[in-house]
């Protein structure tokens, strides 16, 4: 857990990990997975396979968000999501847009458009030049709708249905777990541009979900 903690966003560094769900105590039920995880964000998904490999994902958004899509598979989440493996080798795979900012440009909000100086205002009147935002300064806090993405496949962070949970999309899934939380598969996906996190098809030995408890309010 200490290794993973060095990867999570800084604002959660003082939070204490809190076990929300484990197949050991709660069984292999996707419905129970959802019922224990809803109302919590972010969450940390940890999977240990029967072969001893360990992988998972940091998920920025409440799993309850899946309900907005109705019965249709709908991806949600933000660019803070990432996937990782701990065994056999430790590696993190962030949102591909963070590593390659040229894939997206920020979309101006209506408020930013209204506040932007027009010709003859501010910049010309006072002789001051507004600083330019670095081209690679991408905020992972924002959801995909705030970016002009070359492909929607680069923003498929997380999804959930009655049949499965999915992390990462586009040309494959970083993680796919079935409704019995028993079998899964992993492969390269466009969102994280990751290799398979373990054997491409695997059996789940243990699945856990951890929440983040504010140390100041605990």
From TrEMBL:
One Pfam family matching this protein: TLD
Signal sequence extent: none
Transmembrane segments: none
Start and end residues of each TLDc domain: 1-213
Xref: PANTHER family: GTPASE-ACTIVATING PROTEIN SKYWALKER, NUCLEOLAR PROTEIN 7/ESTROGEN RECEPTOR COACTIVATOR-RELATED
Name under which the protein is recorded: TLDc domain-containing protein
Origin organism lineage: Eukaryota, Metazoa, Chordata, Craniata, Vertebrata
């Amino acid at each position: 857990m200490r290794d993973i903690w060095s990867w999570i966003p800084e604002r959660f560094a003082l939070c204490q990990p809190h076990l929300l769900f484990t197949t050991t105590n709660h069984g292999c039920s996707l419905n129970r997975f959802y019922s224990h995880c809803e109302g919590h964000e972010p969450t940390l998904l940890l999977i240990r396979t029967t072969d001893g490999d360990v992988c998972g994902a940091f998920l920025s958004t409440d799993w309850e968000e899946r309900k907005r899509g109705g019965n249709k598979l709908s991806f949600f989440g933000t660019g803070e999501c990432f996937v990782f493996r701990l065994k056999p080798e430790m590696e993190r795979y962030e949102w591909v847009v963070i590593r390659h900012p040229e894939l997206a440009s920020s979309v101006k909000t209506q408020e930013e458009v209204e506040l932007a100086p027009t010709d003859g205002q501010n910049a010309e009147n006072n002789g001051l030049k507004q600083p330019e935002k670095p081209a690679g300064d991408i905020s992972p806090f924002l959801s995909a709708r705030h970016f002009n993405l070359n492909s929607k496949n680069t923003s498929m962070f997380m999804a959930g249905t009655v049949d499965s949970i999915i992390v990462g999309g586009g040309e494959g899934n970083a993680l796919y777990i079935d409704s019995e939380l028993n079998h899964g598969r992993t492969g390269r996906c466009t969102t994280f541009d990751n290799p398979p996190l373990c054997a491409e098809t695997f059996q789940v030995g243990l699945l856990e979900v951890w929440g983040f408890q504010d140390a100041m309010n605990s």
